[in-house]
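# nightly structure sweep
# worker-07 picked up a monomer target from the shared queue
# config: single-sequence mode, recycle default, output format = structure tokens
# input follows
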Amino acid sequence: MGKSKIKEVDLFVIGGGINGCGIARDAVGRGLSVTLAEMNDIGGATSSSSTKLFHGGLRYLEYFEFRLVRESLIEREVLLRMMPHISWPLRFVLPLSPEMRFENSTPTSRLLNFLMPWAKGKRPAWLIRLGLFLYDNLGGREILPGTSNISLSKDLPGNALKKSFKKAFEYSDCWIEDNKLVALNALDAKNRGAKILTRTKVIEAKRVEGFWKIILENQITREVEEHHAKVLINAAGPWVSDVINSKLHLNFKDNIRLVRGSHIVVPKLYDHDRCYFFQGTDGRIIFCIPYEYDFTLIGTTDIDHDDIEMKPTCSDAERDYLVSFASQYFAKEISSKDVVWSYSGVRPLYNDGTENASAATRDYVLKLEHNGGSAPLLNIFGGKITTYRKLAEAAIGEISKFFPDLKKAWTANSSLPGGDFPVQDVAKLIKKLQTEFSFLSEIRAKRLFRAYGLNAWEFLKGATKLEDLGEQFGEFLTQREVEYLRKNEFVMEADDIIWRRTKLGLRMSEQDKRRLSEYLKTS
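# output follows
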């Protein structure tokens, strides 16, 4: 490795999940030179395996995580304005079962339920309403409507729940296309000057004469490179402790708790556009969410995942748990045979010693380590997708003392690529796209706009008929779109496209999937 090949930057980020890409984007926008290395696909692990919500964390209130909830609630609308193409408002229906209106009638039982609601199964209606009151008012809503009381039979056309559920609370949160969020943060960082290296693994990093010497290996070509950086940020998510121990060879006491969250997808269970928030007798909750037009997403579980090298998959027990949980509410019973797809992700939660995986904190913890300013290291523990931007700001704040000319925070008022338009203009712009490219059906125009926003015009430019978009890979995935994704969103393999940047794998034939894979390998 000759000196001429060594890349020197202000900041090197390990990990291309949402935290790493968010940090890279923030840092390069403040004037730092940045390189990021991700050993797999951008956002290919935890950041593409979430429940796909920007939410305040209603259930975190019962663990008294008021700072986290407040920050998350404020962020929902900041993020919605930044990316109105890949994020949009949702209304959540929280049904009340009959027993919930009558239990805990004594002052003592009510106090115990308030102090330890997780030990009592389903929360009583008064406690839920108190939580929703806080939820409505902690974050200073401007766009999202507040909580309302609804009758399931009168106010919810197409309600699919059992008749014993008569009343519900309805509140607001937001959907987010989680993997697109990561890809667009990485794209914006790249457009601003950051170097984004995918399929590139950190083999070793060590302090040498006041800087970090980082050795990388390309996972495809096996080429090895040396990079130098003033500051190193370890945002490796579930691998953060592994990086500390096996790549940096440091001995830190701080650790993470790996918690697996699994989801299942079934054919559409109802026709309306609301989501359901269900409570279980075990104190847990799940969401049921309209998904990809023809499906319903159900999740998630919380189970400790002991081995980071073991790929997370939805076990039969988790699948059956989610099926049974949802079936307690829906009039039509769901079967494990209805499951058409499942996915799992490992959440790297900061290990706060909590016995129950569901109660482990979702807050983030930043640990800065340096010897008098020599080659600082910042380790990122925990976090949740809703607070990624605030985490990035906090991370840059931690290292700002080493860069006296650093520019001010800027991301709160910026849009991600394709998202520079008002939230209320979505329907109008979808119609405009369909009008200008008349070969697009309404559903196709909506999918493309929801995936690319204003950038949909970029790869459709000049097309007057479907054939102008090149080869068809099924489900209206065209050669033009594939090439756009290659150029702008770091895709290299078929799964990057059909299961992460889009979810077209739910509908594509096996033949189409094989053809796409072949195309990506040979063209």
